[in-house]
Amino acid sequence: MIRLTAERTPAGTSYLATGQGHPVVLIHGVGLNKEMWGGQIVGLAPHFQVIAYDMLGHGASPRPDPGTGLAGYAEQLRELLEHLKLERATVIGFSMGGLVARAFALHHPERLEGLVILNSVFNRSAEQRAGVIERTRQAAEHGPDANAEAALSRWFSHEYQAANPAQIAAIRQTLASNDPQGYLTTYELFATQDMYRADDLGGIQVPTLVATGELDPGSTPEMARQLAERIPGARVVVLEEQRHMMPVESPRLVNQMLLDFLRQAEPFQNQAKGIVA
Predict the structure, then answer these.
(1) Which UniProt key words apply to this protein (predicted)?
(2) CA 65 to CA 88: how far, in whole Å?
């Protein structure tokens, strides 16, 4: 069992770090925190240096200033890498974390070794956009857990919920304990920024994987395909029978996909660093 103690950067970002090798940074989704990555930390740390952190407005990290955009969330990650004395890293973003990973790739390309976007959003339909805007309104009126039950139903299979009631209850409590303003600032970005600098995505020049679950209703396979089409050479993986929280529900399946990608990307990363195999 890997037991980690959270540390903080000078700006207050709370993070966990373990393992050695190429650095891999994990960015959680809106309403969650770095603890969601337990399965990935166990699976990846024997092979890589793994860093998971709390996004602005979440967990033990500070709230974003009013009006903070995705560039500010990307800057949080840059400051974390600076603190850890890491010139470059592979960034894995889940859901809202995928938007932050995209923003980081665009604002700080010199710090990026590879990019993985999991279960994230792109080019929502009018109906999808209306639904997420309504959930934003409900969160503003009733707080971070306004949509908890509906969210859990979207995120997990019924079988997983029934078999893991304690874990589901813990995630429900995580949602409820979010700072209301930090959560709302982040959720508003999640709801509105799916096309953030979409025309610039063609400039991303690192190995990229875009993946989602076959049954993910909010981060659909079609979204993954459309996003990957914008990024040169990006791979698309759709995991059969998986829903939104596939990193939590099926960590072995997701870890194998990530390890396959990361190992294939290593020659590129070594070349970028001037390392001759």
Answers:
(1) Hydrolase
(2) 26
